[in-house]
Design brief:
Helices cover 78% and strands 1% of the residues. It contains 13 helices and two strands. A hairpin with a 7-residue loop joins strand 1 (71-72) and strand 2.
């Protein structure tokens, strides 16, 4: 058979293939859409349990809290509509405003001290050559994080007592003249509670910052050392910018812990002496369960949530803006 004959014989078959491909293209697209729909349905089925828990334990209580905040209700009897009166009480009651002020004071102890100290400790641990010693240091520092906050508050209340470990150590080092019942003194109760929070959160900050340090390219340190830079310039030029995301996460977590603190305060001072260590979380608990004023407690809870968002959202926005 000549080449021309072969070409002529092959031409119809190529046309048949083209026409069949054109005919089956819609079928393939329909099958692909069906597979995509099944995958989407499977994804939603996997998401439904978690979404149900989130709606049931977060969204619905939040909606109910907003609803209750506009009523005068003791949790049992008939609720009476009062509008924004509960919110007006939150912003005019000296005790409630004092609780908010105390929470913002705790930010210094729950955020600035743990993050700053964590930066120093992470840098020092990273420079340790003996890996076993470095791992031991990380474990010891992280131990307070796994202790229940209620237990930490009880333990520190014993140590802060007049005959506790803190005063005994001060007496041994010649500072016996400043010993006092730290949690019973109006001037020292809130800082003493804040230091408990610093002790608890320093380990978390150190470990997370150590993880961030491990992601920084070692060649950057070598390059800046060749330029004759010292530790101070190395820290502010490479280490601090490289840990920007980790610091943003830690500041967010610790600020929320400060503003919503409850466990440590409740077990160590219960808001005392007087109202020196009263915080919003404890105030909400007392108003709702002791005074049976569900409406005011709900309003204070909503105000606390808004305060947390007002403080945290700018931090997140700044961290994203610095990365762009």
């Amino acid at each position: 058979m000549t080449d021309r004959a072969v070409a002529v014989a092959a031409a119809p078959r190529q046309g048949d293939d083209a026409s069949s491909a054109t005919a089956t293209a819609p079928v393939r697209r329909a099958a692909a859409r069906a597979v995509a729909r099944r995958a989407t349905l499977a994804g939603w089925l996997l998401l439904v349990p978690a979404l149900a828990f989130y709606v049931g334990f977060v969204v619905w209580p939040l909606v109910q809290g907003v609803q209750y905040s506009f009523y005068d209700w003791n949790g049992i009897g008939v609720a009476r509509w009062v509008g924004v009166e509960n919110y007006f009480t939150v912003f005019t009651d000296p005790d409630l405003l004092g609780a908010i002020r105390n929470a913002f004071v705790l930010i210094a102890f729950f955020t600035f001290i743990p993050v700053g100290l964590g930066l120093v400790l992470a840098t020092l641990i990273r420079g340790i050559r003996y890996k076993a010693f470095a791992a031991t240091a990380q474990t010891v520092l992280f131990l307070p994080q796994i202790i229940p906050l209620a237990a930490a508050g009880i333990a520190w209340s014993w140590m802060y007592a007049q005959t506790g470990a803190v005063n005994q150590i001060l007496g041994w080092v010649g500072l016996g003249w400043i010993t006092r019942p730290w949690l019973a003194d109006y001037g020292t109760a809130l800082p003493a509670v804040g230091l408990i929070g610093s002790w608890v959160l320093t380990g978390l900050c150190t470990v997370l910052l150590l993880t961030g340090l491990g992601k920084i390219d070692v060649s950057l340190y070598e390059a800046i050392r060749l330029d004759g830079a010292g530790w101070w310039r190395e820290f502010f030029t490479i280490t601090l910018p490289g840990l920007r995301q980790e610091i943003a996460v830690l500041v967010t977590v610790t600020v929320i812990a400060a503003l919503s603190s409850f466990d440590i305060i409740y077990t160590s001072t219960q808001g005392g002496p007087g109202r020196a260590t009263l915080v919003p979380g404890l105030s909400i608990f007392r108003i709702g369960f002791t005074q049976s004023d569900v409406g005011l407690a709900s309003a204070f809870g909503i105000v606390l949530m808004v305060l947390v968002l007002i403080v945290v959202l700018p931090i997140q926005r700044l961290s994203r803006a610095s990365d762009s």
